[in-house]
Write a structure and sequence with these properties.
mainly alpha; 3 helices
Amino acid sequence: MILEPSIDSLQRKIRSKYTLVTLSARRARQMLETNQVFAENSKSHKFVGKALEEVLQDKLYVKEDSK
């Protein structure tokens, strides 16, 4: 079974696996409430998968703190 998008491609966008999981879970709950999906041509049927596709398409990202 091949998972799409791959963890390697996602970690090029967001390095921390913890941040990636937290961000995608939070976005999935938001999609459940609003039914708004920003990913174009989404292949996933589940909200977490759609959130991960948004990360890959640069529609969902983490704003880095500038120190």
